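Below is how a single chain appears once it has passed through the pipeline. First comes the sequence as given, then the structure the pipeline wrote out for it. We keep one example in the README because the format questions we get most often are answered faster by looking than by reading.
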Amino acid sequence: MCNLYSNTTASEAMRQLFKVDATRDHLGNAQPRPGIHPKGTAPVVALDDEGKRELVEMSWGFRTPKVSKVTGKPIKPAAWNNARDDKLMKSGLWKGSFADRRCLVPVSSFNETKGQKPATDYWFALAGEGDDRAPFAIAGLWRVEREDLLEPEHPRRVHTMVTTEANDLIRPIHAKGRMPVILRPDDYETWLTGSLDEAAALLRPYPSDEMRIVLQGVGEKRDEAGL
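Resulting structure:
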């Protein structure tokens, strides 16, 4: 399960990578996001009503109502920020979005934590040299959320990341053996517009030898991803 990621890519670079026309970049003066947590807002690439790619702000995590076991009164809603690949066609939470609302989640690196008291935080990025972290995309889903489940300042659209079995690099670190589905640029269009079978074929671990650990730290999560 991924509960923290970063996106430090400039808007212009995201437009080029994801082939988004400048007129459909709705991020405004977007700043780098060194630490994105569940319920936080982040850039997402989705299709607009005309089927064109757009860059928009979404809040991370599908919300579901939650009540207190003690009082029975509503409390802060749960945020489902990860969607298992083997549940996409079975769960009512994901089925509609997998069929009709797939998206790309731009990422520079993501965090997984191992152990407790103290925990060790590992940040993963694509393979490369030096401190530069090439932007990439994680397979995502989105939907328009119920307004009463969101904070007033949050956008109505929310997103989640799809996860699959972990590769050999991440498996020793992630207790449940999961990792986000990383997509190759040639697969972006298929994920956004392909059939269910074509999209499902992309749900696989990313090769270990094409990834690296860019930061390892003991103690509190590093929101700034070591940047």
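The longest helix spans residues 11-18.

See the next section for the split statistics.
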